[in-house]
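Subject: sequence -> structure tokens, single chain

Hey, anyone have a minute? Need the predicted structure for the following. Not urgent.
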Amino acid sequence: MKPSHLAIGIAVLLLSLFFFVGLPGISGDEGYAGLSPRFMPTLVAIGLAVCGAALTWQGIRGGFRNMPEEDAELPSAPHNFRGFLWVAAGLVANMALIGTLGFVLASTLLMVCVARGYGSKRFVRDGFIGLCITLPMWALFEFLLGINLPLLPVAGF
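Reply:
Had a minute. Here:
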């Protein structure tokens, strides 16, 4: 048994318990798009409980598999501060530009910044992948969930 690994599993289980205890405090009335405001917190609580149970089980059985001991400790400082700055800049740009560029283009820009933060220098490829991910997401929100996200406000869409 690995006590540190077991502690991580128990901490995740306690976090899921925190979510479950808070659920009754959320109104059960129908919310936006026909879903209760309890829907997402319930999914998060269930997901945390499943992950916490799996992590606890692994801790009891001898620790996480395929993890060298030297990787088990957290680094004292970020490995790549420039990468962190690219990701943070992408998030700030997304929040600042989503109202003018729209969901698809702002999120594509976010994808390019995140990929750059992780070391990619292929901006066109990353932008294409971002479009391939965000365009179907926009359609999902717009047509299936009925949540209006701005497609391209600058052009009037």
